[in-house]
Amino acid sequence: MRGVLALLGLVAIPIPAMGQQRRWEHQVQDRLQRAIAAVGTASRLPVVQRSGMLNTDEVASFQTTLTQGTSYAIVGVCDDDCSRLQLTLVKPGGSEIAKERNSESLPALHFTPQATLSYGIRVVMEGCHWNPCWYAVAVIPLGKKAT
Amino acid sequence: MAAVRGWVVAGLVGCLALALAYLPPRGARGSRSSDDGFFIGQSPSGTPARQRAQALADEWRTADGSLDLLTARRRLQLLAQTAIASGRSLVVVSESAGVAAATPPVADSAARLAWQQLGLKETKVSVALIIQRMSVSSRGDRPVPEEQTAAYLAPDSTDRTTCIAVVSVGRWWTRIFTGDLRGRVPFDALVQTLKAGLGPCAFYAAYGTPGKSVRGWLVTRGWDLALTLDAGPRGRYYSSVIEMADPRPRWYWDAVYALPPTAVACLASRPDGCRAAVLAGASDNPAISSPDIMRVDRRWGRIPRLIEGQRFLGDVARAVGRDRFLTFWTSAQPVDTALAAALKRPVGEWTADWERAFVPPIRLGPTPPLGGMAIALAIAALALAIVAGSASRRQVR
Q1: Cβ–Cβ contacts within 10 Å for residue A18, how many?
Q2: What is the pLDDT of residues B194-241, one digit of tens each?
Q3: Span B263-272, mean pLDDT?
Q4: How many domains does chain B have?
Q5: DSSP state letter for A104
């Protein structure tokens, strides 16, 4: 929760325009790096990052392997024109494990897998005022959970 | 006297019924018109074989245009990425007979000025504008390309952030670009041509990719309501003879009745007609083909669904402001709901007011010819006089 609050504080900081057409792409990359830094990681496992662009109501999915017993924070960011981004963690079978849609443009999920499997992460652009909207997602390993 | 009054009323009702059934609508040409001279104008329709050949040529042009766009998509990808990296949202290239040619500096400057005049700066969707020059030597094995036509490839059919516009500039501009025509280049006219040529791509650049319902609606209609992002002040350019003429000549009414019934009703300032003319093509489950190629015919004399419809959404955007227009543009709601919410008025009423700015409202309904009406009234008066006279003679004193 503290991590999420820290992230919310981060997005309120104005980001200077990049002066290029793809400033939105830079904007989300910059936000994602700050989010990763804010959450922090004590694990040696790499941070998985994905980015792209979506029009309103469009969906993107990707697969990533999550290691048993490791806590993960899954964070999504999007550009200034995006008003609502939804993140869903999906089991290999297709059933939903967790869904975050309340944080508007900064959804975050926390999950500790019981088995090492390839999980799906679904991103839904629920609100974009000026299509397309850029988004980026990071799967951040937080470290082994004490048992 | 009461009996006579009854006959008079019955006669008048009968006349009214006959008038409703037989009187022609205002401005309609009768079976014999005094305006018809010795020579009668007739558009050449061609023999069935020629019509078939023309239809085949049109199909060939469509297929060839699609192929051109899809080839350009690959060719322009690197060029567009380079432009984006250098902070530009507009790429201008030129081609002739499918072969890349050097872009004339005047065309490049005009395109950039057009972009600037449209208020476009940094955009999420960039535009690759291909200025297609007419081939000087026409090949006999393929149809001659049409002038005043344009084709567009939507961003979702490219890299999602580039809209490609292919604008055929015609023989006159081609001769200017190649230096065959000497003299001062009408730069303003070229800027206007390219401004209009950016067409739907200008809307993509300004407002991004529309939501599913708006996009489906526009695709179904061939983007006829969003062809010009900024058409300039009203009354500066005309797209139809109806805007230029007064309603007296018969050909004015011929042009009016060539329009779809909803467009005619809108010219008469009827909100229901305007609403139907604007919302035609809107559906709950629109189908969008892939690749999404938009073809636009800008030739003079084409029959629009709505007079000045090509600037409708541009005018809506200016009237409601960018934020409200973007809310409409990306809305998931049905088009009529989203548009009415943006306009804060019923669509039909707003459109009727908007249309009045271009054409004074016409009067519709049956109209008797002046001569026929005079004769009919004279006959009616004579009949009444005879009836009244014979009735008074039969009266028993």
Answers
A1: 15
A2: 998 999 999 999 999 999 999 999 999 999 999 999 877 776 666 676
A3: 94
A4: 2
A5: T
- Say if B354 falls within a structural domain: yes
Distance from CA of B81 to the nearest CA of A (A): 10
Whether residue B105 is contained in a domain is answered as yes
| Interatomic CA distance for residues B273 and B256, integer angstroms | 14
User: In this structure, are residues A127 and A55 in contact, taking their beta carbons and an 8 Å threshold?
Assistant: no
Q: pLDDT per residue over B305-327, tens digit each?
A: 999 999 999 999 999 999 999 99
- With respect to residue B142, please indicate whether it lies within any of the assigned structural domains: yes
Contact A24 B124 (CB under 8 A): yes
Domain extents in chain A:
2-144
Contacts of B160 in chain A (CB under 8 A): 53, 132
CB–CB contact A56 B330 (8 Å):
yes
Q: Is B139 found in the same domain as B243?
A: no
Q: Which of B84, B87, B209 sits opposite A131 (nearest CB)?
A: B209
Q: What is the mean pLDDT of residues A65-85?
A: 93
| ipTM value for the complex | 0.79
Which residues of chain A neighbour B81 with C-beta distances below 8 Å?
Answer: none
How is B67-121 classified by DSSP, letter by letter? Answer: HHHHHHHHHHHHHHHHHHHTT-SEEEEEEETTEEEPPPHHHHHHHHHHHHHTT--
| A2-144 classified as CATH 3.40.640.10 | no
Q: Search chain A and give the residue with CA nearest B84.
A: A21
Whether A131 and B330 lie within 8 Å, measured CB to CB: yes
> Could you tell me the pTM of the whole model?
0.82
Strands A48-54 vs A133-144: parallel, antiparallel or unpaired? antiparallel
What pLDDT does B338 receive? Answer: 96
Residue B87: list chain A partners with CB under 8 A.
19-21
Geometric angle at alpha carbon B108, from B104 and B114, rounded to 5°: 140
pLDDT tens for B155-190 read 988 888 889 999 888 788 888 887 776 667 788 888
Are B180 and B80 in a shared domain? yes
Domain that holds residue B66: 51-209
Question: Across the interface, do A21 and B210 touch by the CB < 8 Å criterion?
Answer: no
User: How many residue pairs from chains A and B have C-beta atoms closer than 8 A?
Assistant: 52
Better-predicted residue by pLDDT, B20 or A65: A65
Looking at the DSSP bridge assignments, the partners of residue A107 are none
Query: B215: number of CA atoms within 13 Å, CB side?
Result: 23
pLDDT score for B62: 81
Band (pLDDT 50/70/90 cuts) for residue A14 is: very low
Q: Write the pLDDT tens digit of every residue in B326-342.
A: 999 999 899 999 999 99
Residue B61, domain member (yes or no): yes
Question: A96-100 and A48-54 as β-strands: parallel, antiparallel, unpaired?
Answer: unpaired
Answer yes or no: do A53 and B330 touch at CB < 8 A.
Answer: no
Secondary structure element (H or E) that encloses residue B12, with its range? helix B2-22
